[in-house]
Write a structure and sequence with these properties.
Strand order of the largest sheet: 5-2-1-9-10-13-14
CATH superfamily of one domain: CofD-like domains
CATH class of one domain: Alpha Beta
Number of helices: 12
Structural class: alpha/beta
Number of strands: 14
Order of helices and strands: EHEEEHHHHEEEHEHEHHEEEHHEEH
Strand content: 15-25%
Radius of gyration: 19 Å
């Protein structure tokens, strides 16, 4: 049985992950998910991207906003407001229940990977959700207003500060988990997909885990990425804003070049077909397709396109 390994962050990545899960047989999809935005809030261990992927693959995500639970209630949040506590980070009651359970499991000695494996089983998710590492690996955003933990930049300040750079991993001792090493070494691995997640806030933290980029560069299977930009803008989130602030061309070609040491091909949207002419001989291959995912059918259709390119012989 062939397996696919995908790297993803939150909302955009989770959409393609859901399409891949629809397309593939149960157990064929493994997902390496960003944990650079994990943090502790009100005493709760929160893993926003892991939870977004979990909820999306389980079919219980809030479809309107893309994150959090559907049919959520907000009693705890309301009580915090009455107590004069600033509710800048939104936590629904069901979400809080999950965080409490994660804290309990972690306190029992389980690694984060083991916790997520158990949660996936509880939510009846047939795919394997793998945190990028078991250790804390916070993403720090360097801005014109000073250094900020990811959630302060992204949620509290709504990405308004100007970005000067990033620091990934928190300076701790990180390493690939046994599960991720096994995924790369799986004899049935058919290909690797980089989902359309923010290249600086979601994918770069994963690539910063020691050994992971080297695994991608040495992969014996095709590596395909889906552009997070369409028509010079991000479908959701601050990717284009960050690129402008870092004085980079707001283009999927630029992102493909940043992955040039391991990427075989990047899928861009049909509206960007003119960018094909900008590809240099040493750039990863580019191919145009409809990559906007507004419906479950479009998610599955994009997954099918990705799989078609994975089956092509490598150049």
């Amino acid at each position: 049985m062939q397996h696919v390994l995908a790297l993803c962050g939150g909302v955009g990545g989770a959409k393609l992950a859901a399409g891949l899960q629809q397309y593939l047989a149960p157990g064929q999809l493994q997902l390496v998910v960003n944990t650079g935005d994990d943090f502790e809030h009100r005493g709760l261990p929160i893993s926003p991207d892991l939870d977004t992927v979990l909820y999306t693959l389980a079919g219980v995500a809030d479809a309107a906003q893309g994150w959090g639970r559907a049919d959520e209630s907000w009693q705890v949040q309301a009580q915090w407001r009455e107590l004069g506590i600033d509710p800048w980070f939104q936590l629904g009651d069901r979400d809080i229940a999950l965080h409490l359970y994660r804290r309990e499991l972690s306190a029992s000695g389980l690694r984060l990977t083991e916790v997520e494996h158990l949660l996936a089983r509880k939510f009846k998710v047939p795919s394997e959700i793998l945190p990028m590492c078991d250790e804390p690996a916070p993403t720090i955003v360097l801005t014109d207003q000073g250094e900020m933990p990811f959630q302060e930049y992204f949620v509290k300040h709504r990405c308004h500060p100007m970005v000067r750079g990033f620091r990934y991993g928190g300076g701790g001792t990180l390493g690939l988990t046994p599960e991720i090493r096994a995924a790369f070494g799986n004899a049935d691995l058919a290909g690797i997909i980089l989902c359309p997640s923010n290249p600086y806030l979601s994918i770069a933290p994963i690539l910063a885990v020691p050994g992971l980029r080297e695994e991608l560069a040495g992969a014996r299977v095709p590596v395909v990425a889906v552009s997070p930009l369409i028509g010079g803008a991000a479908v959701k989130g601050p990717a284009a804003k960050i690129m402008r602030e870092l004085a980079l061309p707001v283009s999927p070609v630029e992102i493909a070049r940043q992955y040039g040491d391991f990427l075989d091909m990047m899928l861009i949207d049909d509206v960007d077909v003119g960018l094909l002419a900008l590809r240099r001989a040493d750039d990863p291959e580019l191919a145009a397709a409809p990559i906007l995912m507004r419906t479950p059918e479009e998610r599955r259709s994009l997954a099918a396109v990705c799989m078609e390119h994975l089956r092509r012989p490598r150049a």
